[in-house]
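Q&A log
Question type: sequence-to-structure
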Amino acid sequence: MSRTWRRAKVTAAVATSLAVLLAGCSADEDASGGDASPEALDAALEKGGTITYWSWTPSGKEQAAAFEKEYPNVDVEFVNVGTGEDHYTALQNAVKAGRGGPDVAQIEYRALPQFALQESLADLSGYGFEEFEDDYTSSTWESVHVGESIYGLPQDSGPMALFYNKEVFTQHGLTVPRTWDDYVATARKLHAADPAKFIASDAGDAGFTTSLIWQAGGRPFRTEGDRDVSVNLQDEGTRKWTAVWNQLIEGRLVTNITGWTDEWYRALGDGTIATVVAGAWMPGILMESVQAAAGKWAVAPIPTYDGEPTTAEHGGSTQSVLKQSANPDLAAAFVRWLDHEQSSIDVFLASGGFPATKVDLESSEFREFSSPYFGGQKINEVLTTAATQVSAGWEYLPYQLYAETIFSDTAGQAYVNNTDLDAGLRTWQDALVEYGNQQGFSVNGG
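Response status: OK
Response body:
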């Protein structure tokens, strides 16, 4: 399963290069382009050539090899420059220099607006990609668009669900919570029964926070045109979420064990952490890294505010064609194959990926997958249903990567000190407004 919610900190190189990129692409950027028609893709595949593909996904190299086998006239140079900081810093540097980058790059949905707004990516609308809209979930389809342009096809998705330790719940007579009020009550009951156990762990993660705000109906980030941005981390949906989560943070009902550490994996394995609210990639994490808890975990729909099923995305990515590509038609044809051809998607699914394509989400084979780790539960029945219940209309900032690097020093302090999250989010908002204005945006602070 994809670990795309894992937010590796992006260094100051992202912030400094952003200012340069907003001024426009380098004069050295390759200006060649294809004729951007569906026919051009087939012609490019027949003609062949060489393209470079940057990706960190477990299936990336195998997909490239499968593509070469299907199209022997094409060579795909697969490069993994790293995840998080390493990937995006290398990509930013290549865009800034106007050379040295890949033809096709993996880009998370959260990062796509930043690169698209800098005009470093090719608009793929002319290649007929818009005709594929009905093939993908609505939330992921929204995520590959910036304005009226499309910059890729959805590869995966991360609809959120509730993963819970059945053994801990049975031991303490807990009922799986349907609403967030139930969740808080369950947290209190569990911690009162055993102070060493917590309903969840939350050390302050920007991606997790914004996904929960998304699910609550918050829409704190808006961009109009190229430069007009609004940041309002005090809107109704955001405060609906903080009204719940403040009870957990201020009441010390969640532990602040940092995610993806040995301590975190141990806590998932020994029952210290009783639930995880995460994207549909979480089963792979548990099966791979928390083997001691095999048979103990189950999955349920994410709690809601009013009983109506609503969730959000947590993670996911696409592949985009860089404008500096010397062979954009072939690069776009590769993107089409990666995320639309079943032969490629099958390779992705075999590596544990969670799809964005409706036909795969709706297939009986996928939905009825029975996991021994989850005690034989057909977990994909829950997760694929969640994929149809993602709340619409979410937007990321055009400098989201930078925003996440300063989260721990602003909003994150509320998690450390068990204090009011609204105050912490106001601090984050002020910093985001100031930074955006410094970078040439016109930012309204709500």
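Response note: Residues 1-17, 23-33 have pLDDT under 50 and may be disordered.
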